[in-house]
Automatic annotation (TrEMBL):
This is L-gulonolactone oxidase. Residues 17-187 form the FAD-binding PCMH-type domain. The keyword Ion transport does not apply. Its cofactor is FAD. Its EC number is 1.1.3.8. Keywords: Ascorbate biosynthesis, Endoplasmic reticulum, FAD, Flavoprotein, Membrane, Microsome, Oxidoreductase, Transmembrane, Transmembrane helix. GO terms for molecular function: D-arabinono-1,4-lactone oxidase activity; FAD binding; L-gulonolactone oxidase activity.
Length: 440
């Protein structure tokens, strides 16, 4: 029987949420996972699974038992015919990307970081960008799930289909995901073209941008009308990168963190910081060619708060103009750059933020320079107000102020998920404060 560790303290990546589980486990086998669930059941303890702890919320937090599947992290099967792989749930995308590259495969789309687990990254509806692409969970062909009772379910479009539609964005609420089978693509390079436009120019030409580039996204710099537009497209061209330590790190990371910290004492500096970094780092035209996963990942800098709601794609322009106009009218509210605007295709996954709607994700950020909290309450409140009023759905990984009735209104299939959750976990073993707020 795997021994639980007492006194373990969990912090999420951004060091914004922490918990002290009664016992912390790192099982080395499915049988050990089952034993931990049996022990938890006998002692009426709650259980949470942690992937890589990147979620910017308390979605992982528990005072019960915390299980990390870092030892269940291997690739189990490769189907070269179907271009599919089956991996253990704890596998990191950093490792998966390399293993796939070694066999000529790749994930068709991934988010900004790869230091995340396969089960964790699908479980919260993680997305990248590209209106022809869904959230990462849409790449899942099947998965296996251990329920609170220790039963292992195979879920796919043809087996336990209802559970599959729930489990792809599982929120850690349905049981322990043990393996995930993923539809991959043949390995590919992406040509990334970065170029400046004003916010007005981007928004007036949004449909064309979406059609012109498979992985189109853009960054808006609050307190300016400037954007950095990114086109990403498949290419056979050879790798060509322009990484420059001075610009990317000395200035783009260390100088920025210092200036943001100084601006906590002199807030009037902030708009000038946004303008200066736009001019210095983001206003140039840059073209690079990278391996796909390297093109999708980018430097996410230092600790931060983020919020990232999905809105119906047709509302993108109106909502960004509303947010900009409000910030222009309220100059005492300061917003860090960037606001990240990304797109994803509609899907059929019960709690996907893109459930039955092509969506635009609008991600706002406030950094914590050297861990220092920066005032963001008014910014966050106005942003959420605009999102709520316009059919927005918050990213499940990221802290938000929504409660059960909000989610019932947002998600047509919310009750389907709730019924499946109650059936698979009748005693609420996998619940925590985050999930109780959502489901009760
Ligand atoms: C720097 C940074 C960049 C990011 N970039 C993006 C981005 O570009 N796009 C985007 O959409 N999001 C992004 N995110 C959010 C991130 O993708 C999600 O928070 C993701 O869920 C983190 O994966 P994880 O492995 O750390 O999961 P965790 O945060 O550890 O867990 C997430 C959820 O999955 C559950 N879980 C994990 N493993 C299992 C399992 N085996 N069985 C059952 N439940 C499980 C947990 O209980 C929890 O509910 C980013 C976050 C950070 C910190
Ligand atoms: O949570 C996230 O963090 C990064 C970005 O905001 C910079 O860190 C990203 O793209 C997310 O979705």
């Amino acid at each position: 029987m795997v021994q639980g560790i007492e006194g373990y303290k969990f912090w999420n990546w951004a060091e914004t949420y922490a918990c002290q589980p009664e016992l912390y486990f790192e099982p080395s086998s499915v049988e050990e996972v089952r034993q931990i669930l049996e022990l938890a059941k006998k002692r009426s303890k709650r259980v949470k699974i942690v992937g890589c702890g990147h979620s910017p919320s308390d979605i992982v937090c528990t005072d019960g038992y915390l299980i990390r599947l870092n030892h269940l992290n291997k690739m189990q099967k490769v189907d070269k015919e179907k271009l599919q792989v089956t991996v253990e749930a704890g596998m990191k995308l950093t490792d998966l990307n390399e293993e796939l590259a070694s066999i000529g495969l790749a994930l068709s789309n991934i988010g900004a970081v790869s230091d995340v687990s396969v089960a964790g990254v699908i479980g919260t509806g993680t997305h990248n960008t590209g209106i022809k692409h869904g959230i990462l969970a849409t790449q899942v062909v099947s998965l296996t799930l251990m329920t609170a009772a220790g039963e292992v379910l195979e879920c796919s479009e043809s087996v336990n289909r209802e559970i599959f539609q729930a489990a792809r964005v599982h929120l850690g609420a349905l049981g322990v995901v043990l393996t995930v089978t993923i539809q991959c693509a043949s390995a590919f390079h992406v040509e990334v073209q970065q170029f400046p436009q004003t916010l007005t120019e981007v928004l007036n030409d949004l449909d064309n941008h979406l059609q012109r580039s498979e992985y189109f996204r853009f960054l808006w710099f609050p307190h300016t009308d400037k954007t950095a537009v990114f086109y990403g497209d498949h290419t056979d061209k050879p790798i060509k990168t322009t990484s420059n330590w001075l610009k990317d790190y000395a200035i783009g990371y260390y100088l920025l963190e210092l200036l943001l910290w100084i601006s906590t004492f002199f807030p009037r500096m902030l708009p000038w910081i946004n303008r200066f970094f736009y001019w210095l780092v983001y206003s140039a035209k840059v073209t690079q060619v990278k391996r796909s996963d390297k093109a999708f990942n980018f430097e996410c800098l230092f600790k931060q708060h983020v919020s990232d709601w999905a809105v119906p794609i047709e509302k993108t322009g109106a909502l960004l103009r509303q947010l900009k106009e409000w910030l222009d009218r309220n100059p005492k509210v300061r917003a860090h750059f960037p606001v990240e605007i990304r797109f994803a295709r509609a899907d059929e996954i019960f709690l996907s933020p893109c459930y039955k709607q092509d969506s635009c994700f609008i991600n706002i950020i406030m950094y914590r320079p050297y861990g220092k909290e920066v005032p963001r309450k008014r910014y966050w409140a106005k942003y959420e107000e605009i999102m709520r009023k316009n059919g927005g759905r918050p990213h499940w990984a990221k802290a938000n102020s929504c409660v059960h009735k909000d989610f019932e209104e947002m998600y047509p299939a919310f009750q389907n998920f709730c019924s499946i959750r109650e059936k698979l976990d009748p005693s609420g073993m996998f619940l925590n404060n985050f999930l109780e707020k959502a489901f009760f």
